[in-house]
Design brief:
This protein is of the alpha/beta class. Helix content is 64%, strand content 10%.
Length: 625
């Protein structure tokens, strides 16, 4: 990506500028104060020239004092304006980055699992933090420098031309030199900025993997290899950063050289103008001050154009995330859909935007208040109808022609070999993915026809990997039900067979759980995640192979407690151990994404070869053990 590519399109920066709209007033005040600062700074060189020509040359002490006091007042006004302008610019940019970070985070949370997997966690962290900071920094520069520099440049040119049009031509020679310097540095640095962000992503990924996998690294004595991997990633980032900084190191010396040459030219030719009587000493001093202001403003604008490419790279990375259109969306209410379809008609009819919003709200409220004619209880909690599913990047179906039902109070288990599609099947119920063919129904309604929040409110989901968050035991359980009482938490822990070890912890429910639950065992983590699902008392329970980390006794006790306490709920279990699901009302046997058998254990033992093989292999393993 070269300089031409940068100037060919700044859509990303323009697109993100909408986040400044809530801060319009603050930005306007900052610009106004910057304008005041600029006027005072432009007037000071003229006062200084008058002080020399009238006060010092004319030996007028009163004029010197009056002019000096005026210069002090103007300097104070300039200082206050500069401080206040910087404060408001910082406030606007901080609010901008806060809202932008929030939107990026919200967008990531709303991505489907498949879309989320297109981005690595490390790059999402970098985009939400470092990239937003890059844009915030350039925004502060633009609100301050990009406003004052053009004003200072134009004001300085006007004042120099008014002093001596001929001498001001020297400035014209300096501008192309600065332009060439800026263009050359931009052309070299822009591709490196992109590589810097990529290397930073890789470094974050390497660090995250080494920290989360520290137990495995130590178990296999791979500390040296892990350190070397991180050192290599760190060295790559350091090398690319050094290349960028070496290029940027030419900025200030180059600009100062051009500025010094210009001032030398002004002094050289200005001396002849003084000898000829066309300029006074005060005028030449003011002229030098204006030339300095002009070149300094150009130098500041050059700094923006140098650092703007890095911000543009960051903006591209952020808009890439914000621009993802989630495939899994909540359904549009019928009234809203009708209003959208009739939007063009409304415009032709002369309706205002406010009128349309009022009508849209009224129709939506009427739709939401319509009575439910058929009770959801008359339908099975879960029903699959000829469901087929495949990942977007895969041409082969993971699941094919799957049909079954889970009735209230019924426990349905799913078993099969590795890669048979067990986890993919249960992920279709909470709509982590959408089916390619067929229909998944919850309480008789297609999961695509209800909002994701309403759908998932009915489900108590326990993932295959036990995920806990940093905080207390109570905090983690209340992820399932925010308003859960202490008694409800203890009851959920009792059902999940977790109450005994929690009581033995130093602070009970207030005991601290580290990120990922690294300070407790795998079985304890698993039981806490089950308690988190139980506390919300959902209509549907989904367990994704959560009992493998438990011993056989705890497994059996937990299943008995679950069966006793949640009799009216539908339970869908994925398991590897046959002993875990042997008592299930119905067992679905998957083989290469297809149903090889369905029914209770006794029936499958008679007529399902795949199930018989799974049972035989596990019995053999237990016997060998």
């Amino acid at each position: 990506m070269g300089a031409a590519a940068f100037f060919s399109g700044r859509d990303e920066m323009i697109e993100l500028s909408r986040y400044l709209k809530p801060f319009r007033v603050i930005v306007a005040v900052s610009i106004l104060l910057t304008f005041v600062q600029c006027l005072t700074q432009l007037y000071l060189p003229t006062l200084m020239g008058d002080m020399v020509d009238v006060g010092i040359v004319g030996k007028d002490m009163d004029f010197i004092i009056r002019t000096g006091i005026l210069m002090m007042i103007l300097s104070a006004v300039s200082m206050v304006s500069s401080i206040a302008s910087g404060y408001y610019a910082s406030k606007a940019s901080a609010g901008f980055s806060k809202n932008l970070r929030q939107d990026v985070f919200t967008k990531v949370e709303n991505l489907s699992m498949e879309e989320f997997e297109n981005f690595e966690t490390s790059t999402l962290v970098t985009r939400t933090t470092n990239d937003v900071n890059q844009i915030q920094n350039i925004l502060i520069m633009m609100l301050r420098i990009f406003v004052i520099s053009p004003l200072m440049f134009l004001g300085g040119v006007i004042m120099t031309v008014s002093k001596d049009p001929i001498l001001s031509l020297i400035i014209l020679a300096a501008i192309p030199l600065l332009g060439l310097l800026i263009y050359g540095i931009m052309k070299k640095s822009m591709p490196l900025f992109q590589k810097t962000q990529t290397k930073l992503d890789h470094l974050s990924l390497t660090l995250r993997e080494r920290l989360t996998g520290v137990r495995v690294i130590r178990a296999f004595n791979k500390e040296d290899a892990a350190n070397q991997t991180y050192l290599d990633a760190n060295a790559d980032l350091t090398d690319i950063s050094l290349k960028v900084n070496k290029i940027l190191a030419y900025i200030m010396p180059g600009m100062m050289l051009i500025m010094d040459l210009t001032i030398i030219g002004v002094l050289w030719f200005g001396g002849y103008r003084i000898q000829s009587g066309d300029l006074s000493v005060g005028d030449i001093m003011a002229f030098i001050q204006y030339v300095t202001l002009i070149l300094f403003s150009l130098a500041m604008m050059a700094m923006i154009f140098i650092f703007l490419p890095r911000a543009k790279v960051s903006a591209e990375r952020i808009t890439e995330v914000l621009g993802v259109d989630p495939k899994i969306k909540d359904p549009i209410p019928a009234a809203e859909q009708k209003m959208e379809n009739n939007a063009e008609w409304a415009k032709k009819a002369g309706k205002t935007e406010k009128t349309e919003k009022i009508e849209k709200t009224e129709k939506t409220e009427k739709t939401e208040k319509l009575p439910v004619t058929v009770s959801e209880k008359s339908y099975p909690p879960i029903e699959f109808k000829e469901v087929s599913f495949r990942f977007e990047k895969s041409g082969k179906n993971i699941l094919e022609n799957i049909s079954f039902t889970v009735n209230p109070g019924e426990t349905v288990a799913v078993i099969g070999g590795t890669g048979s599609g067990k986890t993919a099947l249960i992920h279709l119920v909470p709509r982590f993915y959408d089916v390619n063919e067929g229909t998944v129904l919850v309480n008789g309604r297609d999961v695509r026809d209800v909002t994701q929040a309403d759908l998932r409110q009915k489900i108590g989901y326990v993932s295959q990997t036990a995920v806990l968050f940093s905080g207390t035991v109570a905090d983690n359980i209340r992820y399932g039900k925010k308003e859960a009482t202490v008694d409800e938490i203890w009851e959920a822990l009792r059902i999940a067979q977790a109450d005994e070890f929690v009581k033995k912890m130093n602070d009970g429910l207030d005991s601290y759980i580290s990120q990922g639950g690294t300070n407790i065992s795998g079985g304890q983590k698993q039981r806490l995640t089950i308690a988190r699902a139980v506390v919300r008392h959902p209509e549907i329970y989904i367990f994704d192979d959560n009992f493998s980390a438990l011993d056989y006794k705890t497994d059996a006790d937990l299943r008995r407690a679950l069966k006793k306490e949640i009799r009216s709920a539908a339970i869908l279990i994925v398991a590897q151990r046959v002993s875990t699901i042997k008592d299930a009302d119905k067992i679905i046997v998957l083989d290469n994404g297809k149903i090889a058998g369905i029914g209770p254990d006794a029936e499958l033992m008679k007529n399902c070869t795949v199930y018989q093989e799974i049972v035989a292999s596990q019995q053999l393993e237990e016997g060998t053990a």
